[in-house]
Amino acid sequence: MIPRLSISPQINEVTLNYLVALKNSAFTGDIEHSYASRLSMATDNSIYQLMPQAILFPRSTDDVQLLASIAQRDEFKTIKFTPRGGGTGTNGQSLNSGIVVDLSRYMNRILELNIEEGWVRVEAGVVKDQLNQYLKPYCYFFAPELSTSNRATIGGMINTDASGQGSMIYGKTSNHVLALKTVLITGELLETGKKKLTEIEKLVQDSSIYRSVFDYCKNNRQLILDKFPKLNRFLTGYDLKHVFNDDLTEFDLTRIITGSEGSLAFVTEAKLNIIPLPKYRFLINIKYDSFQSALSNAPFLVKADALSVETVDSKVLGLAKEDIIWQSIKDLITEVDNHQMQGINIVEFAGNDFESVKGKMDKLCLILDQIMLDHSTGIIGYQTCDELSEIEKIYAMRKKAVGLLGNAKGARKPIPFVEDTCVPPQHLAAYILEFRALLDSHNLTYGMFGHVDSGVLHVRPALDMCDPQQEKLVKQISDQVVALTAKYGGLLWGEHGKGFRSEYSPAFFGETLYHGLRIIKTAFDPDNRLNPGKICAPLKINDPMISIESVTRGFYDRQIPISVKRVFHGATECNGNGLCFNFDVNSPMCPSMKLSQNRIYSPKGRAALVREWLRLMVELGVKEDELDALLPKGQSRLISFAKKLVYTLQAKFGQYDFSHEVKDSMAHCLSCKACSTQCPIKIDVPDFKARFLQLYHTRYLRPMRDYLVGNIESYLPLMARAPRFFNFFMKMSVTEYLTNKTVGMASLPMLSFPTLKKQLIGHPSANVKLEYLQNLSTAEKAQYVLVVQDPFTTYYDAKVVFDFVCLIEKLGFKPVVLPFVPNGKAQHIKGFLKQFAKTAQNASDLLSQIAQLNIPMVGVDPALVLCYRDEYKLILQDKLGDFSVLLSHEWLTNVLSNIAKSNLTINSSNKQWFLLGHCSETTQLPASNQQWQYIFKQFGAQLQPISVGCCGMAGTYGHEVKNLHASKQLYQLSWQKALEKYPKQFCLTTGYSCRSQVKRFDKYSLKHPVQALLELVCVNC
């Protein structure tokens, strides 16, 4: 039985008093200080972990001013603040031990757009892709491109002066920031923008901030010009060089704040320059026999006047091939006969003049054809893309490179700490040779990708951060790379800011310029209260910079036994890349995060909570085998129940247990499993959620609805014997009331009538006994198809199964409906792992016996069929039998090529259909949409896949009273909008849950694709 986890890092009294004062003020945002909330903000996309005291989520600039003003009271002067956006930084920029001010949850509004003048005004929490999605209909975009663009906020981009692909043309974020609205630590509002020198005379006189920056940057202008490297990725934090324009006629304080990593002020709003979208884009994917060849070839490609030149090494390519992303690009980057592709360069041309842009690409292709004749160049082939959708798919793979490296096999993972060095592009190949030699001297493997046009290469050495000796290499290698970049006239931080690497600032800036940084910090933040330890400290305060040797996630992870990590591998392998924060409501990734905007309810947040939960368990003395065991040993049921009752009552009356916070996080998970494929690390939350629930309920009682859901497959067959009788009582208002109040379930579906059994009367093959099939010849067996029932479609939506049987018959096959065998999916979701293991073993044994008939077994519901492939494999491991259950589209794809089209007569009345994807199917089987399109094409119809997120039902999640509001909101995010746009009678979906949700909220019964096919085809007999 798990113990009560009453230990948690305490919040200091000053902070608690401050939070009370803030709560009693006019602050309209959220105030959070639970252990779970703090843990969710203790990490970013770096290797570090630092626990904050509390988190504030302001709703407006007024809120930010208020929280800063209250902090000016004498009793709160010791409190430190750190602004935070998407938390995508790789160097701990948003980590600190004070109060985190997260502007991403609420301050994400696009405020004003002026197309005529080419600018947009936004709040700091707006996500980069969100902004570009908004601008696209106007044919404009915000230029700086990032690999984390679907979760990185504008405020975060400003604070790190972010840049990425295309920076040679589009520059950095600071090149596009026209004006800022910021809040100083005093609570004062500071609005900055480009001003003529004549305009700022009064500001320089009246403002110590303006005066300090103006005087220092003017008096040291020549030193600044001499010291700052002549690179596209100029020195960040603080940008002394660009405060003045070249002829010293303009002054812009914005350039000091941009890149300051939240150490000077809270950025709350920004006025941004926007650029017309190029009308024409072309891409060339050039393939090489070695990564060094790709790097050596880069300067030549830059001279081709390309928009950008990106590079990816063989390690990233190999990991991409194991990821869902490869399905979308495998035809765009094909293998080359007799050659191993060890790297690629991605060259893009863009512009508004078709002839000019196309001419540049054609010219480069001609040169490549000639160069390839000389095999010493290493070029083994190339492919071009001229479709925008293809180009975006290539860049999606490139963007995912960061996360993919985290999925490398073994304990050593490529990690960020020297991954954004920048040197002049002409020195890049030589620099990397030395960089590789440096890493080789430590016997390290590594992954590489980057922007070779600007001399930035992301190099991630593979280290096991749970090994203290390897952890020490972070500092040792960093010191060596600092010297190496200096040798080649480059920077340690060419793209991702300083963060915990700020201790190297004095060496780069030199004594005089570093002193200047401290003068500026003093003017803005004299008491060192904003993100202390980053960039520099103010004068007269000798607080050290946060060290690169600070506490890492590895320090905490190594406290968890290896065997436990294997059982909870999804939680312990999360690297913090944050792809689960994707803002797009049409993306299937983590619906609970999209709806709540609460990081606790994301895969990353849940992984962090479970990691800490496991660590605390070990700290309290729980034995390794107790956590490792799938089914923990406990007392007799009676004693166990009595103790559980006591513990549950104690919890109800407020006794603290961190386990409850973890449980709350898991309760919001819909078990859609999108994380297990969309996340580059394959974080499978439903798997470790089930394991956690199994252990949690060895101490605390389960609600009655868990038993109702977990045992649903045992009583559904019984209820189906008298469906009208049960439906009559289920429709009664008193039944609905009692079900709501006592069990916590709502909107329960009605049983199918007529039942599947009755509908199959008159279809003799459907009821054939298995004994009969055993005696058939191989040729005779080829005529048969075995239909595997699932509980929800069979008993609640039987018409789908029946129509599939009819379709099979019309295609010339003989369907046999197998006896119903419980699947156990619901047991797994609720954490009944003991029962699930038994159910899975029984089903596996039976289906393995049936599989010996060598007749295809096919099911119609994705969630249930995929359970055989995923959850069964995890729970049974080497006890899993030898069987395979296909989904309907997989079987149809296999057999259609063998059916003569001349035998098909197509009903041509309905030619256009729309497929709203079931989240489990589209994420776990990325080729399913294309396969369904192929199938419909064979039947003479068109099928258009519609991108939607989660429908909000997710099995029984949407039927639980506590989830009703969230379920409806999720439905409204994407499904409802899609169904308003397309004709419902031609909309299809494969999932029973999805059809049930549409029926509940839109009062319409969508068809399964097999039902549409049945309408389309008949066979001339």
Would you give an account of this structure?
With about 1000 residues, this protein is α+β, with helices and mostly antiparallel strands. Among the domains are: about 280-405, Alpha-Beta Plaits; about 560-700, no CATH class; about 710-1020, no CATH class. It has 50 helices and 29 strands. The strands form seven sheets. Strands 13, 14, 15, 16, 17, 18, 19 and 20 form an eight-stranded antiparallel beta sheet that branches. Strands 5-6-11-8-9-10 form a six-stranded antiparallel beta sheet. The longest helix is centred in the middle third of the chain and has 20 residues, at about 505-525. The N and C termini lie far apart (about 65 Å). The relative contact order is 0.08. Mean pLDDT is about 90; it is low at about 630-635.
